[in-house]
Amino acid sequence: MPELPEVEHVKRGIKPFATGQKIESVIFSEKVKEGKASQRETIIKGMALDTFQKFTEQYVIKEIERRSKYIVFHLEKGEEERILISHLGMAGGFFVVDKIEDISVPNYRKHWHVIFKLDNDKLLVYSDIRRFGEIRNVPDFEAYPSFLEIAPEPFEEEAKGHYIAWFDKKTYQNKPIKQMILDHRVISGCGNIYACEALFRAGIHPARLSKSLNNQERDILFYYVRDVLESGIKYGGTSISDYRHADGSTGTMQQHLNVYKQKVCKVCGNDIETQVIATRNSHYCPTCQK
Ligand SMILES: [Zn+2]
Questions:
Q1: Which of 85, 140, 209, 270 has the smallest C-beta neighbourhood within 10 Å, fewest atoms?
Q2: Over the stretch 29-60, which tens digit does the pLDDT of each residue have?
Q3: Can you give the residue ranges of the FPG-type domain (predicted)?
């Protein structure tokens, strides 16, 4: 599943080619049309396809940003503004190409679902092998309230204080710390891989109750969440599952993982164990993490 570092690379891959371009038309795949016709809302959420076209076509892409694990396109047509909010689901990605055949990974070439034709003659393509991703077209962020609940970006100044304040709320006091840091209202963009790795680097067992962490452990954990996300961005993310960058290349972060889907601890040599916490597999070293 694309996490923050992977989504950051998708954004970097498309931003230089799509920013400032007018969207001339939007084309949907047969799967998207069939999904809409049978109320499944395939990829395009909360809006009929012709309405989506009406609020996207002839708009200029003013800005593309990443927020948590979402890619956000700010659109403008004269005085009118719209926002496209896209979550890549399990295996989605955006590409900018001259023609569909130029998408280098066969699966992404085959499973394109939305094409935005740009006025520089390029195609901004949303491909999704498993179709769990989504694109919403909203007038402002208030129209998609769950988006407003997301914590500050982890590299922003206020992110740490925001996270620390959650220890005083009842929500997670008697729940595993792993579950707490996976909530994007607590820390933005820390998915399962990076949560497992941050807990390892911090030496904290994922099943520990949040309230059992002392102040130093709370601080250290946040430090390592930032640290692993930075490493993830630096190494281009992971290429676990089907994920590919916009240019078809893969990340190498998996070579720097200590516990996620690993067999043996690189520090102490003991076996890595797996435990399901809040429906997600947690991988940890029982010796190094207390
Ligand atoms: Zn170990």
A1: 140
A2: 999 999 999 999 999 999 999 999 999 999 99
A3: 258-290
